[in-house]
Design brief:
By secondary structure, the chain is mainly α. It has one domain. α3 packs antiparallel against α5. The protein is flat. The termini are far apart. About 5% of the residues are buried. InterPro entries: NCS2.
């Protein structure tokens, strides 16, 4: 039940934050969130040991590094 109640929060975070934000659900936010999600799912599915266990943290770190590179 808790997981189901968190779905709207996850969708908002995936889209980039608050619905009132002018950058909400922009292609950049959706592409970045999709990229991180793919990394996390791939690590959980095919990673061994620590890579599978730390998939969320690794995905967040890779997403942060990519976002820094894109911003300049």
């Amino acid at each position: 039940m808790i997981g189901l109640s968190l779905i709207p929060v996850a969708v908002d975070w995936f889209a980039g934050g608050q619905r009132t934000d002018p950058h909400y659900a922009t292609p950049e936010n959706l592409i970045m969130a999709s990229f991180v999600l793919i990394i996390v799912v791939a690590l959980v599915q095919w990673g061994k040991g620590i890579f599978s266990a730390a998939a969320i943290v690794i995905g967040m770190m890779i997403g942060y590094i990519v976002s820094l590179a894109l911003v300049g």
